[in-house]
Amino acid sequence: MLSPVPMVAPAARKSRQARVVWGDRVVTVGGDAPVRIQSMTNTDTVDVIETAIQVKELAQAGSEMVRITVNTPEAAAAVPYVREQLDRMGENVPLVGDFHYNGHRLLTEYPECAKALSKYRINPGNVGKGDKKDKQFGQMIEAAMQYDKAVRIGVNWGSLDQELLADLMDENNRRAVPWDGRQVMYEALITSAISSAQRAEEMGLSGDQIILSCKVSGVQDLVAVYRGLSARCDYALHLGLTEAGMGTKGTVASAAALSILLQDGIGDTIRVSLTPQPGEARTQEVVVASEILQAMGMRSFVPSVTACPGCGRTTSTTFQELAHDIDKHLRSQMPVWRVKYPGVEKMKVAVMGCIVNGPGESKHADIGISLPGSGESPAAPVFIDGEKALTLRGDRIAQEFHEIVQAYVERRYGAAKVDN
């Protein structure tokens, strides 16, 4: 007797929950909170207007925290004005300060910067050497406690604590059966992150306000490190490949690594670190991150558009153009629709190219259209909530379908808001 095929879903996460706050905006990270998306500007922070504009663009694309570079006294002095500009624009997304080498000094000497940020990113490999390391790390933790800020202790294998790595290498050489060199590197990453978090807790910072990351650039390396890290602590974890790359390479590598870990129940906030291609918007990394979570069934951000890839039956480009236009239209409307039409992000739209799968896929969507393939009658049936509603003909099919989608959103999701 056949047994049903087991259903699958991402494993439950077991991390503590941090709070990243600005004013009334509280972004929870870990615990039972949704997996969060964050991104980072690539502007010079000293340019207040340009930085604030890019932060707002990233936030409107779906980034729930935005990291900015704080690398010089001038950048630190500019941070409060970036925050002020965002507040004037009505954008309350929390800002994360990215500190390396001189963060202890900048947070101490520029208290308004420390106050304006909602989270500090600290790299244990770049907080000083020898006797200075503990002191300078401590100054950053003290600032976080003074101003009630969350911290991300972010270890990167390109800037590992060399003293720690040397000690672990020496220890490995004394083993009867030495570990592989890569395994020693994994241990250095994990040990650096956890020991730094424990040191912060010993100083008085709540463990609930600590988020850890161990960034590497290889998919299998990332999976190995985070499985080890999650097995040894319950801090909230930030996921992301460092230097993921450009275009397809960076997108595929990030999707592969993050999906494996998220399915394992590992990861509370993610970033897709894409190198923008010439002319490409910085917001593309946010789009990819949201698509990963939506494809995993973990969150919904924008209505999904199902479209066939095309074949010999669909020699016309009409359905390709319509699918692209609909997807672009839905994304552009989301900043308004998200507020005006609750639940619209779960809507499913189908734009199909011929009679083979077109009607069936359209019936499974909330609203769908099946365009005529090569040699088929020039008619496009439209399905709404699983039922054939009407058939479009003529040269205004695309425009009329746009109008039908808009009317459907207003009717279905506008009513939902009234009911609430």
Automatic annotation (TrEMBL):
Taxonomically, which superkingdom? Bacteria
Keyword set includes Metal-binding? yes
Similarity comment: Belongs to the IspG family.
Q: Top enzyme class of this protein?
A: oxidoreductase
Q: Which residues does the UniProt record annotate as the domain IspG C-terminal? A: 305-406
> What is the gene name?
ispG
What does this protein's UniProt record list under function?
Answer: Converts 2C-methyl-D-erythritol 2,4-cyclodiphosphate (ME-2,4cPP) into 1-hydroxy-2-methyl-2-(E)-butenyl 4-diphosphate.
Q: What is its EC number?
A: 1.17.7.3
Spell out the Pfam families in the cross-references: GcpE, GcpE_C
- InterPro entries, A to Z: Dihydropteroate_synth-like_sf, IspG_bac, IspG_bac-typ, IspG_C, IspG_TIM, NO2/SO3_Rdtase_4Fe4S_sf
Key words, A-Z:
4Fe-4S, Iron, Iron-sulfur, Isoprene biosynthesis, Metal-binding, Oxidoreductase
Pathway terms, separated by semicolons: Isoprenoid biosynthesis; isopentenyl diphosphate biosynthesis via DXP pathway; isopentenyl diphosphate from 1-deoxy-D-xylulose 5-phosphate: step 5/6
Q: What is this protein called?
A: 4-hydroxy-3-methylbut-2-en-1-yl diphosphate synthase (flavodoxin)
Binding positions for [4Fe-4S] cluster per the UniProt entry: C308, C311, C354, E361
According to its UniProt entry, this protein's organism is Comamonas piscis
